[in-house]
Design brief:
The protein is 30% helix and 31% strand. The protein is of the alpha+beta class. It has four domains: 2-93, Rossmann fold; 117-179, ATP-grasp fold, A domain (Dna Ligase, domain 1, 2-Layer Sandwich); 184-313, D-amino Acid Aminotransferase, Chain A, domain 1, CATH 3.30.470.20; 323-404, Glycinamide Ribonucleotide Synthetase, Chain A, domain 4 (Alpha-Beta Complex), CATH 3.90.600.10. Strands 10, 11, 12, 13, 14, 15, 17, 20 and 21 form a nine-stranded antiparallel beta sheet that branches.
Length: 405
């Protein structure tokens, strides 16, 4: 185990647990009570980057990894770099296209990347005029990922009108409206130092809350990796035409992107794709699935990027031949005991559930945890996950059952 101290900014349970097996000490800001077994939680808000810097200096932190969009938006990377503290994260300037959705759509258009037809509105009357003649279904969404219900797939004008009104009247500066893209949704993740990029893996996404892609659309409720449904030719096109073009553009602009970058896309036919948005780090629902496939020492990988040695030391990223599948478990009500959670074979990444004084796991309304199973075949991984989900059944439990089919 390395004699190092690592600070993670943002509540990535899966990453914190993975790194705790590599180094002596992992701090997480702000963290949650379920991380206490393997990490120390720091009571500092993700957006308070000056206080985070002071903590890193005072505690001799060797490497900081920022996974929080709030911290990235507050330019934690530039502040740490200016004070000679090693950090694996993009600067605010370089990450605008991955955080700001209206900017991302314009960015895709500028790079000539295929993306669904879109429109951006700041004024309600103009948005409503557009919606009257729009093609349905469409997706209306916030400009920033700062609330849970940030998007809605609208089948009718009435639904789109109500949701758009709600967004703008509650204070959203902009609303992005785009045509719904039919097909298989996936995310390609890469590691980059801003000049050189290497793929991690491609992940299949489940974004709708109900089986068979029904219900509300979300940022994600489950995933499996690697995604066998995306042809190698499409993966190569997304990597070359989207990721490398974006990285080269940002480098020429003087704002190189350092960190993990995700590209959300839709396989619209066996040989065509369209890009929806970018991600400035792995998502909660698929982080463990991705990490299960990576056999590299993550600390060495992140430090190589932060120190500028990435291109010299890495030609590819070592991965295994396993399959992972993840499922987000929600709860409709608070305070229900979750039975036998310690008996499951799947990895658990806690997001909301907690333990009481009797060491029982207790549900909280909304997101509770992500279960991730890993096996030599996808069918075996899904069977393990299905058995574990049935084992822990509790009152008010909610998840997509077809993820295991």
């Amino acid at each position: 185990m390395k004699s190092k101290k690592i600070l993670i900014v943002g509540n990535s349970y899966a990453l914190a647990k993975k790194l705790s097996n590599i180094v002596d000490k992992v701090f997480v800001a702000p963290g949650n009570s379920m991380m206490a077994n393997f990490a120390e939680c720091v009571d500092i808000r993700e957006c308070n980057v000056t206080e985070l810097l002071n903590f890193a200096v005072e505690n001799d932190i060797d490497l900081t990894v920022a996974v929080s969009e709030k911290a990235i938006k507050e330019d934690i990377a530039s502040l740490f770099q200016a004070n000679e503290k090693l950090i694996f994260a993009p600067s605010a300037q370089s990450a605008v296209f991955a955080i700001n959705k209206s900017y991302a759509k314009k960015f895709l258009y500028k790079l000539h990347v295929p993306t669904p037809r879109f429109a951006i509105f700041e004024k309600l009357p103009l948005a409503l005029d557009y919606l009257k003649d729009a093609t349905y279904p469409l997706v209306a969404r916030c400009d920033m990922n700062e609330i849970a219900d940030d998007r809605l797939c609208c089948l009718t004008y009435e639904t789109a009108k109500c949701f758009t009104e709600d967004l703008l009247l509650r204070g959203e500066n902009k609303v992005v409206i785009e045509e719904y893209a039919y097909g298989h949704e996936f995310t390609m993740y890469v590691v980059t130092d801003g000049y050189h990029a290497i793929p991690l893996t491609t992940v299949a996404n489940y974004k709708f809350t109900e089986d068979g892609n029904g219900g509300l659309i979300t940022s994600g409720v489950g995933a499996f990796a690697p995604d066998y449904k995306v042809p190698l030719e499409i993966q190569e096109k997304v990597f070359k035409n989207v990721i490398l073009n974006a990285i080269n553009y940002l480098e020429k602009k003087g704002t190189p992107y350092l960190g993990i970058l995700g590209v959300d896309a839709v396989l619209t036919s066996p040989d065509t794709y369209t890009v929806l948005e970018f991600k400035p780090f792995m998502q909660d629902f698929d982080t463990q699935a991705v990490l299960n496939l990576v056999d590299e020492d993550l600390i060495e990988l992140f430090e190589a990027c932060a120190n500028g040695f990435f291109a010299d030391e890495y030609e590819d990223i070592l991965t295994n031949d396993k399959f992972s599948v993840s499922c987000l478990v929600n709860a409709r009500i608070d305070g229900k005991v979750i039975p036998d959670l310690d008996l499951v074979d799947s990895e658990i990444s806690f997001t909301g559930a907690e333990q009481n004084k009797y060491f029982e796991y207790i549900s909280s309304k909304g997101s509770n945890f992500v279960l991730t199973s890993c096996a030599s075949t996808l069918s075996r991984a899904k069977k393990i996950l299905k058995d574990d989900l049935e084992t822990i059944a509790f009152d008010g439990m909610k998840y997509r059952k077809d993820i295991c089919n």
